[in-house]
């Protein structure tokens, strides 16, 4: 079985955690409502929740996470032969955030890719990175991250927001994560045994909207960010079960072979609903959304970073990811060697 290896991971979260009491005060809603609706306890913002002042960019977070991953791998930056970055919220359309991160790391004369996607972009980055390694590259960086400052405003009257917009203010946070991929077992020696990346949204309405404005429509009153939370509640648990069985069947693994499960991370309460629907097995859940909020493309890497110190030789793990924007099924399978 041909494998690519995760040598190390790194993460970055901006500022101090913002708890539900502080967030509720900012939005004019109760702490209890936030806990009841999403269950997430804290999140981090690269902007001041009171003034809205932006204190850090996506490139800042991604460069920090990537530098930590390279340092932890034991490799030198000179060993890195490509960079793949996934985000739904780039700092600018051009230059890409991926090239900004490469520049900050001191990398040059190597291919740099940026993937525009929701949370499944992290798995798409892993898929592309895996392909590049199998094609002859020796080591590379895959990065995922997102920031919220263009889409969430502390100055808007929360009482006037429709539910599909208000939910975003309590779901999301900022963050970045990264992994170093290698052709030979290095560092943590975690083999990527399979990657699933499949769009299944043909003819289906989107479950999430993330818009942007240009010079001709910047005064438009249309919403920038919205969730069809009912559709997500209905479809994501079922899709998660499909992803799990597809990964297991493709590898010939059974539920009893899985020591760790990295489930989708929309919110703490949604994650609990998803896990309840999954078939019973011995796998230990690895989640972070209750402490980090939904950080989009950072989430799979944040989970992977939490898995690393728990992962022992011979153990296996599955990661599941559902992007509701247009229903992308994604995931990956790991084995410690």
Q: What is the mean predicted local confidence, pLDDT? A: 94
Helix and strand sequence: EEHHEHEHEHEHEEEEHEHEHHEE
Low-confidence stretches: none
Total number of strands: 14
Specify the biggest β-sheet.
10 strands, mixed
Secondary structural class? alpha/beta
**C-alpha end-to-end distance:** 13 Å
What does this structure look like?
- With 337 residues, the chain is α/β, with parallel strands linked by helices.
- It contains 10 helices and 14 strands.
- The chain has helices at 20-27, 31-37, 58-73, 97-105, 121-134, 163-171, 229-251, 268-277, 289-292, 299-307, and strands spanning 4-12, 18-19, 42-43, 83-87, 112-116, 139-146, 175-182, 190-199, 208-210, 225-227, 260-262, 284-285, 316-323, 328-336.
- A 10-stranded mixed β-sheet has the order 5-4-6-7-1-8-14-13-11-12, sandwiched between helices. A two-stranded antiparallel ribbon has the order 2-3.
- Helix 4 links the parallel strand 4 (83-87) and strand 5.
- Helix 7 packs across helix 8 (268-277).
- The chain starts with a strand and ends with a strand.
- The mean pLDDT is 94.
């Amino acid at each position: 079985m041909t494998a690519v290896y995760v040598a190390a991971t790194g993460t970055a979260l901006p500022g101090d955690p913002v708890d539900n009491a502080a967030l509720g005060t900012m939005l004019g809603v109760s702490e209890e409502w936030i806990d009841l609706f999403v269950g997430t306890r804290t999140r981090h913002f690269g902007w001041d929740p009171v003034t809205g002042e932006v204190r850090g960019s996506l490139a800042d977070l991604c460069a920090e996470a990537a530098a930590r991953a390279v340092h932890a791998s034991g490799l030198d930056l000179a060993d890195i032969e490509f960079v793949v970055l996934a985000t739904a919220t780039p700092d600018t359309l051009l230059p890409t955030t991926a090239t900004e991160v490469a520049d900050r790391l001191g990398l040059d004369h190597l291919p740099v890719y940026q993937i525009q996607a929701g949370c499944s972009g992290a798995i798409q980055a892993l898929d592309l990175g895996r392909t590049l390694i199998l094609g002859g590259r020796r080591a590379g960086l895959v990065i995922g991250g997102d920031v919220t400052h263009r889409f969430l405003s502390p100055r808007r009257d929360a009482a006037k927001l429709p539910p599909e917009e208000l939910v975003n203010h309590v779901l999301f946070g900022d963050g970045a994560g990264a992994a170093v991929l290698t052709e030979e077992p290095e560092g943590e020696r975690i083999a990527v045994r399979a990657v699933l990346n499949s769009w299944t949204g043909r003819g289906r309405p989107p479950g999430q909207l993330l818009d942007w404005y240009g010079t001709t429509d910047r005064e438009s009153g249309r919403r920038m960010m919205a969730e069809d939370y009912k559709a997500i509640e209905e479809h994501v648990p079922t899709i998660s079960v499909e992803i799990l069985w597809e990964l297991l069947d493709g590898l010939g693994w059974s539920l009893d072979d899985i020591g760790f499960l990295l489930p989708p991370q929309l919110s703490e309460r949604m994650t609990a609903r998803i896990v309840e629907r999954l078939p019973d097995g011995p796998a230990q859940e690895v989640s972070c959304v209750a402490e980090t909020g939904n950080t989009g493309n950072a989430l799979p890497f944040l989970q992977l970073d939490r898995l690393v110190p728990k992962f022992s030789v011979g153990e296996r793990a599955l990661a599941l990811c559902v992007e509701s924007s247009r229903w992308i099924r994604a995931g990956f399978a790991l084995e410690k060697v």
